[in-house]
Amino acid sequence: MFHLICAILKGLLEGVTEFLPISSTGHLILIRDLLPLSGDPADAKRLDDLFDIVVQFPAVLAVAILYRQRLWAAARGLGTSPDARRFWIGLGIAFVPAAIFGKLFHDRIEELLFAPVPVALALIVGGAILILVDREPKKPAGTGEAEADGGSAPAAAPAPDANRWTRAEAVPWHVALQIGLFQCLALIPGTSRSGATIVGGRLLGLSREAAAEYSFFLALPTMGAAFVYKLYKSYKLIHWGTDGPILLAGSLVSFVTAWIVVALFIRFVQKHSLAVFGWYRIGLGSLVLVVFWFAQR
Q: Which of 84-93, 111-120, 228-237, 251-260 is predicted with the least confidence, judged by mean pLDDT?
């Protein structure tokens, strides 16, 4: 029962963090020892590695269901709509870099960087980048203010619109490829797949909402493929009698939580900056480094 409760808590954490720019993998690495899924230390890593991938798939499924109307509309338009073809081909192009780099370097990165200190450093650096990239533009001087002598100040020229694409479906192929390259940074644990793709999207001219939604859509092929690949490699190693309830509990909680979080996140980014997530990352990463430093003394 204790391990089942741990699975539920980890599924909750996965659902909350997967699509926020704060790194679900980093969080799961940090709490591995606190919420063990097995009483056998020799078996714990196998089950943790499997669990961390399996519970991502229900989170992706939640996104697919939430956006089912737009995805279905794009799917129906494949034969007739250039916009629909551009959207799906763009997602395929954006997926390719992570697939290649993941195949080449994932095992080595996991061996070297799946530890609290590298995760903490990635959280801090990624948080600072998120704050810098998603700063609110300053209001042009002179707008809406009266001159000291009582006259009206001349209206300043409007700032150029940096949001060239306000819908994820409108992103062209060459921009999709560049977002896919940004996604490769998420191979570093603690970076955050959603954080890397949102930052990339913002730098390339997507609105905050479009960047978040493109990150959601790109998760469909990326995390779907990771799930299938991991399950294929680990299928014969799964102990269904003991692993099954653990994986099922975590998956159900991840699905429900991700559904709620994604819906709330989109409402949030429509009105607010992402800086709060950057400061959270910096705070968490700093706390981990402090705890690790005292633990080593």
A: 228-237
Tell me: the pLDDT tens digits for 167-177?
999 999 999 99
State the DSSP string of 193-223. Answer: HHHHHHHHHHHTTB-HHHHHHHHHHHHHHHH
* First-residue to last-residue Cα distance in the chain: 35
Identity of the residue numbered 40: D
Instruction: Tell me if 194 sits within 8 A of 270, measured CB to CB.
Output: no
Q: What are phi and psi of 152, to 5 degrees?
A: -90, 135
Q: What is the CA radius of gyration of the chain?
A: 21
Beta bridge partners of 150: none
Residue 3 phi, psi (nearest 5): -70, -30
Helices (H), the chain: 2-17, 24-30, 41-54, 56-66, 68-76, 82-113, 116-133, 173-183, 193-203, 208-234, 240-269, 275-296
Amino acid identity, position 11:
G
Q: So where are the chain's domains?
A: 2-136+160-296
| pLDDT the model gives residue 64 | 95
Q: CA–CA separation, 45 vs 27, rounded Å?
A: 16
Question: Are the C-beta atoms of residues 283 and 90 closer than 8 Å to each other?
Answer: no
CA torsion angle 129 131 134 140 (round to 10): -120
Q: What is the pTM of this model?
A: 0.87
Whether the predicted pLDDT of 17 surpasses 50: yes
